[in-house]
Amino acid sequence: MTTTTVCLIGAPHDTNSSFLQGAAQAPDCIRRVLHNGAANMTSESGVDISTPGLLRDAGNIDVENRQQDVMLVESGIAAILAASERPLMLGGDHAVTYPALKAISAQHGAVDILHFDAHSDTYPDFDGNPYSHASPFARILEAGLCERLVQVGIRTLTEAQQTVITRYGVECEPWRGDVSQWLGLSFARPLYISVDIDALDPAFAPAVSHHEPGGMTTRDILQVLHTLKGQVVGADVVEYNPLRDQNDMTAMVCAKFVKELVALLSR
Protein backbone atom coordinates (compact mmCIF):
# COMPACT_ATOMS: atom_id res chain seq x y z
CA MET A 1 0.00 0.00 0.00
CA THR A 2 1.35 3.42 -0.95
CA THR A 3 1.90 5.77 1.96
CA THR A 4 2.31 9.53 2.11
CA THR A 5 4.72 11.36 4.40
CA VAL A 6 2.95 13.05 7.29
CA CYS A 7 4.49 16.21 8.69
CA LEU A 8 4.08 17.03 12.38
CA ILE A 9 4.14 20.77 13.03
CA GLY A 10 3.49 22.79 16.16
CA ALA A 11 1.47 26.00 16.35
CA PRO A 12 2.38 27.38 19.80
CA HIS A 13 -0.20 30.15 19.94
CA ASP A 14 -2.84 30.78 22.60
CA THR A 15 -3.44 34.53 22.78
CA ASN A 16 -6.91 34.01 21.31
CA SER A 17 -7.97 31.87 24.27
CA SER A 18 -10.89 33.45 26.06
CA PHE A 19 -10.39 31.99 29.55
CA LEU A 20 -6.95 30.54 30.25
CA GLN A 21 -3.66 30.53 28.39
CA GLY A 22 -1.21 27.64 28.41
CA ALA A 23 -2.07 25.79 25.20
CA ALA A 24 0.95 27.37 23.49
CA GLN A 25 3.09 24.98 25.52
CA ALA A 26 1.24 21.93 24.19
CA PRO A 27 3.19 21.02 21.03
CA ASP A 28 6.47 20.32 22.80
CA CYS A 29 4.72 18.51 25.67
CA ILE A 30 2.87 16.21 23.28
CA ARG A 31 6.10 15.44 21.40
CA ARG A 32 7.91 14.62 24.63
CA VAL A 33 5.23 12.17 25.74
CA LEU A 34 4.89 10.65 22.27
CA HIS A 35 8.59 9.70 22.39
CA ASN A 36 9.09 9.01 26.12
CA GLY A 37 8.95 5.23 25.79
CA ALA A 38 5.83 4.71 27.90
CA ALA A 39 4.00 3.38 24.83
CA ASN A 40 5.14 2.06 21.48
CA MET A 41 4.76 3.93 18.22
CA THR A 42 2.20 1.66 16.55
CA SER A 43 -1.38 2.78 15.93
CA GLU A 44 -4.33 0.53 16.67
CA SER A 45 -4.63 -0.11 12.92
CA GLY A 46 -1.10 -1.55 12.92
CA VAL A 47 0.78 1.39 11.41
CA ASP A 48 4.21 1.91 12.98
CA ILE A 49 4.57 5.67 12.77
CA SER A 50 8.33 5.41 13.39
CA THR A 51 8.74 3.72 9.99
CA PRO A 52 11.39 5.69 8.06
CA GLY A 53 9.82 8.16 5.65
CA LEU A 54 6.35 8.01 7.19
CA LEU A 55 6.53 10.87 9.70
CA ARG A 56 8.64 14.03 9.64
CA ASP A 57 8.71 16.59 12.44
CA ALA A 58 9.05 20.14 11.16
CA GLY A 59 9.25 21.69 14.63
CA ASN A 60 7.13 24.70 15.52
CA ILE A 61 5.86 27.54 13.38
CA ASP A 62 7.55 30.79 14.39
CA VAL A 63 4.40 32.62 15.39
CA GLU A 64 4.30 35.56 17.77
CA ASN A 65 1.71 35.34 20.52
CA ARG A 66 -0.49 38.24 19.44
CA GLN A 67 -4.07 37.86 18.26
CA GLN A 68 -3.64 38.58 14.55
CA ASP A 69 -0.33 36.73 14.29
CA VAL A 70 -2.22 33.44 14.36
CA MET A 71 -2.60 33.94 10.61
CA LEU A 72 1.13 33.15 10.21
CA VAL A 73 0.10 29.53 10.64
CA GLU A 74 -1.16 29.57 7.04
CA SER A 75 2.32 29.86 5.54
CA GLY A 76 3.65 27.07 7.77
CA ILE A 77 0.97 24.67 6.58
CA ALA A 78 1.35 25.83 2.97
CA ALA A 79 5.05 24.92 3.03
CA ILE A 80 4.21 21.36 4.11
CA LEU A 81 1.66 21.01 1.34
CA ALA A 82 4.15 22.37 -1.20
CA ALA A 83 6.47 19.50 -0.22
CA SER A 84 3.67 17.01 -1.04
CA GLU A 85 3.31 16.08 2.63
CA ARG A 86 0.19 16.02 4.78
CA PRO A 87 0.15 18.25 7.87
CA LEU A 88 -0.70 17.16 11.40
CA MET A 89 -0.74 20.33 13.47
CA LEU A 90 -0.38 20.47 17.25
CA GLY A 91 -2.01 23.52 18.80
CA GLY A 92 -2.25 25.88 20.42
CA ASP A 93 -5.79 27.00 20.91
CA HIS A 94 -8.45 26.35 18.30
CA ALA A 95 -7.87 29.67 16.55
CA VAL A 96 -5.00 27.99 14.67
CA THR A 97 -7.43 25.88 12.64
CA TYR A 98 -8.75 28.78 10.53
CA PRO A 99 -5.38 29.74 8.96
CA ALA A 100 -4.55 26.07 8.52
CA LEU A 101 -7.76 25.60 6.52
CA LYS A 102 -6.88 28.61 4.37
CA ALA A 103 -3.75 26.75 3.27
CA ILE A 104 -5.55 23.42 2.90
CA SER A 105 -8.32 24.89 0.75
CA ALA A 106 -5.80 26.71 -1.43
CA GLN A 107 -4.35 23.29 -2.25
CA HIS A 108 -7.49 21.14 -2.38
CA GLY A 109 -10.40 23.52 -2.84
CA ALA A 110 -13.26 23.52 -0.36
CA VAL A 111 -12.91 20.42 1.82
CA ASP A 112 -15.00 18.41 4.24
CA ILE A 113 -14.25 18.80 7.95
CA LEU A 114 -14.80 16.39 10.84
CA HIS A 115 -14.66 18.42 14.04
CA PHE A 116 -14.58 16.97 17.58
CA ASP A 117 -15.32 19.51 20.31
CA ALA A 118 -17.45 20.40 23.30
CA HIS A 119 -18.15 23.73 21.59
CA SER A 120 -19.12 24.50 18.01
CA ASP A 121 -16.69 27.47 17.83
CA THR A 122 -19.07 29.30 15.50
CA TYR A 123 -19.41 32.63 17.29
CA PRO A 124 -19.36 35.47 14.72
CA ASP A 125 -16.73 36.84 17.09
CA PHE A 126 -16.17 36.47 20.81
CA ASP A 127 -15.66 39.51 23.03
CA GLY A 128 -15.04 41.50 19.87
CA ASN A 129 -12.20 39.23 18.70
CA PRO A 130 -12.77 37.73 15.24
CA TYR A 131 -9.68 35.52 15.72
CA SER A 132 -11.02 34.05 18.98
CA HIS A 133 -10.69 30.33 19.59
CA ALA A 134 -14.48 30.43 19.88
CA SER A 135 -14.81 31.62 16.27
CA PRO A 136 -12.60 29.66 13.81
CA PHE A 137 -15.44 27.74 12.19
CA ALA A 138 -17.43 30.93 11.64
CA ARG A 139 -14.41 32.25 9.71
CA ILE A 140 -14.00 28.97 7.81
CA LEU A 141 -17.65 28.84 6.80
CA GLU A 142 -17.97 32.46 5.74
CA ALA A 143 -14.82 32.15 3.63
CA GLY A 144 -16.18 29.08 1.84
CA LEU A 145 -13.22 26.91 2.90
CA CYS A 146 -15.38 23.83 3.48
CA GLU A 147 -18.38 22.26 1.78
CA ARG A 148 -19.41 19.99 4.64
CA LEU A 149 -18.78 20.43 8.36
CA VAL A 150 -19.64 17.59 10.75
CA GLN A 151 -19.36 18.43 14.46
CA VAL A 152 -19.23 15.68 17.08
CA GLY A 153 -19.34 16.00 20.86
CA ILE A 154 -21.03 19.42 20.99
CA ARG A 155 -22.84 20.12 24.27
CA THR A 156 -22.74 23.89 24.82
CA LEU A 157 -24.67 25.47 21.94
CA THR A 158 -25.71 29.09 22.38
CA GLU A 159 -28.19 31.00 20.23
CA ALA A 160 -25.38 32.92 18.49
CA GLN A 161 -23.59 29.71 17.55
CA GLN A 162 -26.79 27.97 16.48
CA THR A 163 -27.60 30.84 14.13
CA VAL A 164 -24.35 30.29 12.21
CA ILE A 165 -24.86 26.51 12.23
CA THR A 166 -28.33 26.89 10.72
CA ARG A 167 -27.20 29.45 8.14
CA TYR A 168 -24.50 27.18 6.72
CA GLY A 169 -26.19 23.80 7.16
CA VAL A 170 -23.61 22.46 9.60
CA GLU A 171 -24.22 18.85 10.67
CA CYS A 172 -24.28 19.36 14.42
CA GLU A 173 -26.35 17.10 16.65
CA PRO A 174 -25.92 17.69 20.39
CA TRP A 175 -23.90 15.01 22.16
CA ARG A 176 -26.07 12.78 24.35
CA GLY A 177 -23.66 9.93 25.00
CA ASP A 178 -24.38 7.64 22.03
CA VAL A 179 -21.59 7.50 19.46
CA SER A 180 -23.39 5.13 17.10
CA GLN A 181 -24.80 7.79 14.75
CA TRP A 182 -21.27 8.96 13.91
CA LEU A 183 -19.81 5.56 13.12
CA GLY A 184 -19.11 4.86 9.46
CA LEU A 185 -19.14 8.51 8.37
CA SER A 186 -18.32 8.86 4.68
CA PHE A 187 -16.77 11.95 3.10
CA ALA A 188 -16.69 12.60 -0.63
CA ARG A 189 -14.18 15.47 -0.66
CA PRO A 190 -10.70 15.71 0.85
CA LEU A 191 -11.14 15.58 4.62
CA TYR A 192 -9.63 17.67 7.40
CA ILE A 193 -9.98 16.41 10.98
CA SER A 194 -9.85 18.79 13.94
CA VAL A 195 -9.67 17.27 17.42
CA ASP A 196 -10.30 19.69 20.26
CA ILE A 197 -9.36 17.71 23.35
CA ASP A 198 -12.24 19.18 25.35
CA ALA A 199 -14.59 17.07 23.23
CA LEU A 200 -13.67 14.47 25.83
CA ASP A 201 -15.29 14.39 29.23
CA PRO A 202 -12.94 15.98 31.81
CA ALA A 203 -12.58 12.54 33.38
CA PHE A 204 -10.60 11.49 30.29
CA ALA A 205 -8.83 14.79 29.57
CA PRO A 206 -8.71 17.12 32.59
CA ALA A 207 -5.92 19.29 31.17
CA VAL A 208 -8.00 21.61 29.03
CA SER A 209 -8.90 25.24 29.64
CA HIS A 210 -12.66 24.74 29.42
CA HIS A 211 -13.97 21.79 31.42
CA GLU A 212 -17.34 20.69 30.05
CA PRO A 213 -18.76 17.60 31.83
CA GLY A 214 -20.84 15.03 30.00
CA GLY A 215 -18.47 14.52 27.10
CA MET A 216 -17.10 11.75 24.94
CA THR A 217 -14.78 8.95 25.99
CA THR A 218 -11.41 8.41 24.39
CA ARG A 219 -12.78 5.22 22.84
CA ASP A 220 -15.75 7.12 21.34
CA ILE A 221 -13.42 9.32 19.31
CA LEU A 222 -11.23 6.39 18.32
CA GLN A 223 -14.29 4.50 17.05
CA VAL A 224 -15.32 7.43 14.87
CA LEU A 225 -11.79 7.75 13.47
CA HIS A 226 -11.42 4.01 12.84
CA THR A 227 -14.73 3.69 10.97
CA LEU A 228 -14.71 6.83 8.82
CA LYS A 229 -14.42 6.60 5.04
CA GLY A 230 -12.57 9.25 3.08
CA GLN A 231 -9.18 10.69 2.16
CA VAL A 232 -7.70 12.61 5.09
CA VAL A 233 -5.44 15.44 3.89
CA GLY A 234 -4.79 17.31 7.13
CA ALA A 235 -5.55 17.27 10.83
CA ASP A 236 -4.95 19.01 14.12
CA VAL A 237 -5.03 18.31 17.85
CA VAL A 238 -5.74 21.48 19.81
CA GLU A 239 -6.64 22.99 23.21
CA TYR A 240 -4.50 20.74 25.41
CA ASN A 241 -3.32 22.90 28.30
CA PRO A 242 -0.19 21.44 29.97
CA LEU A 243 -0.52 23.88 32.88
CA ARG A 244 -3.52 21.84 34.07
CA ASP A 245 -2.07 18.37 33.51
CA GLN A 246 -1.00 15.81 36.12
CA ASN A 247 1.46 13.03 35.38
CA ASP A 248 1.10 13.76 31.63
CA MET A 249 -2.28 11.98 31.61
CA THR A 250 -3.91 14.30 29.07
CA ALA A 251 -0.68 14.60 27.10
CA MET A 252 -0.78 10.83 26.62
CA VAL A 253 -4.34 11.06 25.29
CA CYS A 254 -3.11 13.65 22.79
CA ALA A 255 -0.20 11.40 21.81
CA LYS A 256 -2.64 8.52 21.28
CA PHE A 257 -4.68 10.64 18.89
CA VAL A 258 -1.50 11.71 17.11
CA LYS A 259 -0.65 8.07 16.36
CA GLU A 260 -4.13 7.31 15.06
CA LEU A 261 -4.24 10.47 12.94
CA VAL A 262 -0.81 9.78 11.44
CA ALA A 263 -2.09 6.35 10.43
CA LEU A 264 -5.10 7.93 8.71
CA LEU A 265 -3.08 10.67 7.03
CA SER A 266 -0.51 8.22 5.68
CA ARG A 267 -3.08 6.20 3.74
Quick summary:
This protein has helices at residues 26-34, 73-82, 97-108, 136-142, 159-168, 218-227, 249-265; strands spanning 6-11, 55-60, 86-91, 111-116, 146-152, 171-172, 191-196, 232-238. 51% of the residues are buried.
What does this structure look like?
The protein has 267 residues and is α/β, with parallel strands linked by helices. It has 7 helices and 8 strands; from the N terminus they run βαβαβαβαβαββαβα. It is globular, with a radius of gyration of 17 Å. The relative contact order is 0.21.
Rounded to the nearest angstrom, the distance between the terminal CA atoms is: 8 Å
How is the biggest beta sheet arranged? 8 strands, parallel
Q: What is the helical fraction, as a range of percent? A: 25-40%
- Write down the Rg: 17 Å
**Helix and strand pattern:** EHEHEHEHEHEEHEH
Q: Hey, roughly how much beta strand do the residues contain?
A: 15-25%
Number of strands: 8
Number of helices: 7
Mean pLDDT: 96
Bulk shape: globular
Low-confidence stretches: none
Q: Briefly note the structural class of the backbone.
A: alpha/beta
Strands of the largest sheet, in order across it? 2-1-3-8-7-4-5-6
Q: Any descriptors?
A:
single chain; 267 residues; alpha/beta; 8-stranded parallel β-sheet; 17% strand; globular
Q: What is this structure's SSE topology?
A:
Layout: E1 6-11, H1 26-34, E2 55-60, H2 73-82, E3 86-91, H3 97-108, E4 111-116, H4 136-142, E5 146-152, H5 159-168, E6 171-172, E7 191-196, H6 218-227, E8 232-238, H7 249-265
Parallel strand pairs: 1-2, 1-3, 3-8, 4-5, 4-7, 5-6, 7-8
Helix pairs in contact: 1-7, 2-3, 3-4, 6-7
